[in-house]
Amino acid sequence: MTEEQQEAPQRCGLVAIVGRPNVGKSTLLNALVGQKISITSRKAQTTRHRITGIRTLGASQFIFVDTPGFQTTHMKRHSGAMNRNLNRTVQSALSDVDAVIFMVEAGKFTLDDAKVLAMVPEGKPVILVPNKLDTVRRRSDLLPWLQSMQERHPFTEYFPMSANSTADVERLFGIVEKHLPVQPWLHDEDALTDRSDRFLASEIVREKLFRLTGDELPYTSTVVIDKFEEEGNLRRIAATIVVERDAHKGMIIGEGGERLKRIGSEARQELEHLLDAKVFLELWVKVRSGWADDEGHLRSYGYE
What we know:
Blueprint: H1 3-7, E1 11-18, H2 25-33, E2 51-57, E3 60-66, H3 80-95, E4 99-105, H4 111-119, E5 126-131, H5 142-152, E6 157-158, H6 166-177, H7 197-213, E7 222-231, E8 234-243, H8 246-253, H9 258-275, E9 278-287, H10 295-300
């Protein structure tokens, strides 16, 4: 610990990152932590679990909680049990945090944004973060919008930014730090996440699955890690991609198995970088009809 850290009181707190699907929550979490721990894709509802990212700067330890995008009523086409599970995860995350980052797209506020904002418990400091500032043509247009947002909720502060801007991310730490309670750190100084390598492996395979199938593959598919073995600098991983229909299985495997090979190859390369080890990855595809609307299946596949 540095001299500066010893002089300043230790601060540590939980900060939830909330917003409707696809506003950039996972991108922001990865930028704040300085390493990819939450997967991203254009597909709505990529994040399905409570993911914790940890960053220690000076005497302060930030524990960021990335939440699934709150599922609103118009998304009923997705499975009911899965949606209930995701919404419980968001509500649980909000109940025990010290501060909330509420993300929206700069200059926009939809009915879905309003529904997420309504879930934020009273009395918590809420920082309004309008993301994707780089897409706003004239910054002056944001002023009346920001004033209208302040009328919707007594935000503690607001910070328009781009989650892809390193300078913006660094400034956000200074804004959030004021809301961390003075208390000892909960994690080691170099910790990045409380999630296991096994969990991160399943998430990275799922990201490649979503990215390489585009809009073809329905929302209801998941990845289960069957084996995760460590042999020195080698990781042997076997994973099953679970889908609801035979047609979905065909989409993933692709002609001559080419698409499944590519999913495996891209996931393996990223895992080798993340785990700093050689990775041997085997992928299988299984059909489990109705799994996403079955509470028992959801629990067995690791949904909280």
